[in-house]
Every structure is written in structure tokens, then in C-alpha cells.
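Dear colleagues,

For the upcoming journal club I promised to circulate an example of a predicted protein-ligand complex. I picked one with glutamic acid because it came up in last month's discussion. The inputs are reproduced below in full, followed by the predicted structure.
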Amino acid sequence: MTVTTRFAPSPTGLIHLGNIRTALINWLFARVNNGKFILRIDDTDAERSRQEYADKIKHDLDWLGINYDETFDQSSRFDVYDKRFQQLKDSGRVYACYETAEELDRKRKLQSATGGKQVYDRSALKLSDQQKKDFEAEGRKPHWRFLMNSERVEWDDLLKGKISIDLTSLSDPVLIRADGVPLYTFTSAVDDIDYKVTNVIRGDDHTSNTAVQIELINALDNCNITFAHHALLQAASGDKLSKRDGVISIESFREQNMEPLAILSLLATIGTSNSIELKDNIQQIIDEFRIETISTSPGRIETDLLNALNKKIVQGFSFNDVKDRLANVDDRIDELFWDSVKGNLATVEDVKSWADIVFNEDKIEVEDKEFIQQALSVIPPDPWDENTWELWTSEIKQLTGRKGKELFLPLREAFTGMKHGPEMKQLIQLLGREKILNRVNI
Ligand code: GLU
């Protein structure tokens, strides 16, 4: 049987590092087993789902190199869900309920006040045909719950080991809302059957869903799926990650010009028993993947670590590796330029700030004219190299008696027009003697 995994995001927001980690694990599991990886868009909730987000999820996956063998939208399968629902109806495994949200809420409050389990009391099972008719005459539409028969569900979780869940501690799940929309618990089970998913790998926030879905899949078919629940990633603060947290969305990393390999390297190792390190390429990540190294305790996302990985990639790029990207920034950037500045860059595109400093033709107004004149009086002759700056500034120091900030800051301001920036030792080589003499206005 072909190993088949799936990533099933709801297109209700931008996906973040935690979501994409689940995708990556599923993708890696399929790849190492020569299997199939499916992208399923869980969009049955028309109110909350947006095509824009589904497109962005695909873009994020493409950008990272996580390719899928098949994709489909749940919203294209309502007729299939109808048939499966009929199957459950025919076998007496669903029942109509008429409680309003407020009534259910009141029940829960009462249960909690009396210290009872907050589980649906199945009172709808006792409704007579006449009572149901009366409700419908009042204009109420039924929602449908799945009748769970077993007391317990057990499975061997690939990551958490033996799991045993008491189904009587869970409410019979609603499969179809009063407006007729089928819900996730149901549609996911149907799709996992129809697409012959062999391995469901997802966050451990889904553990009790799994118990319910095993029961449901068994009611429809035969559940042969192997489940694995990984711990969720947390923010550095220990808080839950949220789709609303734009700063950790994959889109935001793309917009910050982060390298995909930095993200993949981090996600392949965070929350595992392996140390976090930069991988050479995606193939190395596939080759090294072992699902059993994934930890059951949550990993925390340290953005500093991601930045460090990214920096390492950028600094390892030769001019040839990035020449097209550099040409997009400024076509005057040549090999010498790239090699001089790359050590100071956090991202490839940050090269722009250097290009702006080096290539602009503006005259720079100088405040401390006398000092700069003295400095220029001892400007070294060509050719310049990486020692020039030190030689030159020690001469200026001797001549003027200045040192530290007093010495360096006015020089930086006079030659670059900025108070901060890349190392002067490299910058002056890129500027060159003539440009420095021409740009200072004294
Ligand atoms: N749409 C669900 C989610 O994003 C899918 C969970 C699953 O993998 O079954 O949580």
C-alpha cells in the first residue's frame, strides 16, 4: 500500500511556522517512504474560508519546495459528504438534535455548576417523532450528531505510544450543522478514507479528535490509519502560536527575504532530539528525517536562531549564486562588492543599503570642515586594500590627536552621510579614493 499523508489547512488566515512544520513532517514522511503527499484545503466553512488564503498556502509551500502530489478543496465534495451522511443515517449512527446554541450553553453551565462532566446528555435521542415535528414547525432545523458506541478507543500512536481515550468523556460530535454544512470531524474522516490516507500526522491538539474520528471511520469503513501526534511549537514566550500572529507567518518571512532553506533547516530540527543546524539542501533534510526523533514536548521558536541560520546561508553565497538577485537590487553590484559586504548582511536583499551608500552621487555636507580637511590631507594613494582604513585613521589620529568616536564618527558621516552602517574598512574600498575626495563638500 502506498504510504499516503496529507496536510489539511483551513484557509482562514496566513499559515505560520507551526502549521508549516506539520506540512513538512507529513511531506518528509511521504518522501522517505516513496509515498504520496496530498494538500487538502479544509474550506467547508464558507464564512471563514477565503480563496486568497488557499492561494497563499500554495504559494508558501511552493516557495519552500514542499511539493504535493495531489490537491483538492473540501468544498468540491459536498455531494460525497451527503452520501456518507446518508450511510450513517441508514445505519442509525446519527441523530437529529434541536437545541439552540443558548440551550446547549445553559446545559453546560448547569453541568459545570453541579460538578458533572460537560458532555452532551443525548437528550435528543429521546425525542418522539411528534416532538421533532413540533420543533420543525417552530422553524427549528436539526443539527446532526454522531452516536458514539464504544466506551474507549485505543491506538498505537507513532509518536506518543499507546493512547487510550474514554469516549464517554466526550460529547457525541456534531457532524452536520443546522444550516446543512458538514463539519471538520466528519469531512476529514470521509476524505481520509476516500483518499486512502495511511498516516495522519498532526498536532497533539487533535488527540481527542482522533479518538472520535477512529470511531467514525470504523462506522463508515475500516480504520487502518496510523496516527501520530506531535507536540505543537510554541512562541519564544511559551505562548501558543496563532494564525493572527502575522510576525511568524511564512508570508512575512518571505517578505523579509528570508531564505527558504533557513526555515526548512529550523523546522526539520526544532522540537526533535537533533541539534538545530543549517542543512545543505532539502535532500539532506529528507535523507536525515526520522519521525521517531520528533519530541513529544513542545519546541520553542527562537527567531534569533532563524536569523542566525539565514545569515549563515547568505554569507556562504558566492557572487554567482546570487547574481540575478543582486542585479534586481542594483546592477552595479559586482563580485568585489558582494564579497566585501556579504559578511555584514542578514539577508541578500539587505545589500541595498550598502549600494545606496556607495553609489549615490550626492554631495555630503560636512559639519566639522577643518577636521575633514586635515583627514583628506593625508588620504593614502591608490591602490587601496583592507589595511588602508587602519593606516589612514592612525595617521589622522597622530595629526589631530583625536581618538575613538571623536575620530571615527565624523569620518563616517563625511564619507557616507550616515551615523551608522557597514564597516568603514570595506566601505572605503568600495567608494574609492576619487569618490571620497569628490563627495565631501568642504
Ligand atoms: N483543518 C484542520 C486543522 O487545520 C486539519 C487537522 C487534520 O490534520 O486533520 O487543524
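Two points we might discuss: Residues 8-10, 42, 184, 188, 202, 206 surround glutamic acid (CB under 6 Å). The chain has a mean pLDDT of 95.

See you all on Thursday,
B. R.
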